[in-house]
Design brief:
Radius of gyration: 24 Å
CATH superfamily of the largest domain: DnaA, N-terminal domain
Number of helices: 7
Shape: elongated
Order of helices and strands: HHHEEHHEHH
Strand order of the largest sheet: 1-2-3
Structural class: alpha+beta
Helix content: 55-70%
Number of strands: 3
Length: 143
């Protein structure tokens, strides 16, 4: 079996990937939410990075316009987080960005709720008990 570092090395050399660019791109992906904020990071998506140009997809033209005005500030924040000047220019494009909503924290069921779930589950046929238990626990956690 081939070691992973040998596989990666042959992949990058065969595909003519710029290893340094791949490393820099991963650094940028990691610091992007810290540099621009959670809300903005959820409403945009990094499409690519190559030779100092960061391409960011925005969900609509309003974001493109607003972020274009903030371009210099974003470049500065990203480079400050990286502690080196990797990003020299940002290009904003309209693209398919799924806006992720923060997950609601599930509540932990108390003893009374657990007993209620078990009472209901015991009344169901045995073949359905696990599914009903899962549904009732999810219902109680989210209500």
């Amino acid at each position: 079996m081939e070691k992973i570092n040998h596989s990666l090395r042959s992949f990058f050399s065969r595909r003519k990937y710029d290893r340094q660019n791949v490393i820099e791109s991963s650094f940028i992906h990691n610091v992007y939410p810290l540099a621009v904020g959670k809300m903005l990071a959820r409403s945009t998506k990094i499409l690519g990075y190559k030779r100092g140009l960061l391409t960011i997809a925005c969900k609509n033209s309003i974001y493109v316009t607003e972020l274009s005005h903030m371009k210099e500030e974003m470049i500065e924040k990203i480079n400050n987080e990286l502690k080196q000047e990797l990003v020299k220019e940002i290009r904003f494009v309209i693209g398919n960005v799924r806006v992720s909503k923060p997950r609601k924290r599930k509540k932990v069921l108390n003893q009374e709720q657990k007993e209620w779930v078990e009472r209901i589950v015991q009344q169901a046929p045995e073949c359905y008990q696990n599914q009903i238990r899962s549904m009732l626990v999810a219902y109680k956690e989210n209500s």
